[in-house]
Amino acid sequence: MLGWSIAYIFLLLSIFLPLLSLITAALLIVPVLIMYVKLGTRRFLVHYIVSLAVVYFVASLLAGWLGALLVSVSVFFLPPVIQMGNLYKKRAAARTVITAGTLTLLGELLLTLVVCSMFGLNPVGSMKRFMMESVQTLPPQVQSIMAIDMDTFVQLMVQMLPLYMIGFSLFYVVISHWLARKVLVRSGESIPAFKPIKDWMLPKSFVWLYLLALILEMFVKDSRSMIFTVLLNLLPLLMAAFAVQAIAFLFYVAHVKRWNKTLPIVGILLLLFFPPAYFMFSLLGVFDVAFPIRDRMTSK
């Protein structure tokens, strides 16, 4: 556990290093989550507080405000650690852990926006200005080929802030769970894993929700209405969920047909590197959930 404390100190201190920040920021929860599960509450608090004290002291030598900022970042990610760690100790299902961790982190992000607004800050407006300045730095040739004008484009990107927050929370928790579980299982802990990907199946209610969203999209044209904003964030989430469902279906087909994993691996590569295939995969996922395709394949 001393080694994990030292690792956590280095991870926190390296957040603002240009080359390492993208990697280390994604790993920030892992050492704390491992310590929380392996140690009792008192021992965990000792390791955690001492680690933060070291980080604060070292960072304050570089800049007076840096120490407080790093401690704030660490405390921000502590609630998901406690939530996920308690579920690990109860041997909860992996889906329950991911859901709880994602909702906790998402709730913190929303609370941060509310608190910033209460103190007179405007993070959404700052984001809009930043995106406007970023678009203006593009070459004129690139700006001219944009299908919509710059103001409308930036406005749509700002309206998709809930989608970014959900995507960030889900990605962060999934990566943290995957890495922390591997370490904990090797250390002797019994942490339930996800079901095999071939057995993944979305609820059928997702199909009706997707169809309802598509129908509403045809009639809602006011880009500043609340319904438009909801659809703008909901449809990409549903399409992503059904695209993952399509990959699960390909794994199922490979399993039933006793093929190797070439088919689903090619599907993953197409999904990642060939954007036009995204809609087709989403459609395949909808058919997999809506119709008993798997039952017919199994009976044959």
SSE arrangement:
Blueprint: H1 2-13, H2 21-26, H3 29-38, H4 41-62, H5 64-76, H6 78-89, H7 94-118, H8 123-136, H9 140-144, H10 150-159, H11 161-186, H12 205-219, H13 226-256, H14 262-273, H15 277-290, H16 293-299
Structural class designation: mainly alpha
Strand composition percent: under 5%
Rough outline: globular
| Number of strand elements | 0
- Number of helices, where a helix is a run of at least 4 consecutive DSSP H or I residues: 16
Radius of gyration: 22 Å
- The helix content, as a percent range, equals over 70%
The SSE string, one letter per element, is HHHHHHHHHHHHHHHH
User: Uncertain spans, ≥5 residues at pLDDT below 50?
Assistant: none
The biggest sheet, with number of strands, parallel, antiparallel or mixed sense and barrel status, is: none
- State mean pLDDT (0 to 100 scale): 84
Distance between the termini: 53 Å
Describe this structure in words.
With 300 residues, this protein is mainly alpha-helical. The protein has a domain at 195-300. It contains 16 helices and no strands. It has helices at residues 2-13, 21-26, 29-38, 41-62, 64-76, 78-89, 94-118, 123-136, 140-144, 150-159, 161-186, 205-219, 226-256, 262-273, 277-290, 293-299. Helix 3 (29-38) packs across helix 11 (161-186). The chain is globular, with a radius of gyration of 22 Å. It starts with a helix and ends with a helix. The mean pLDDT is 84.
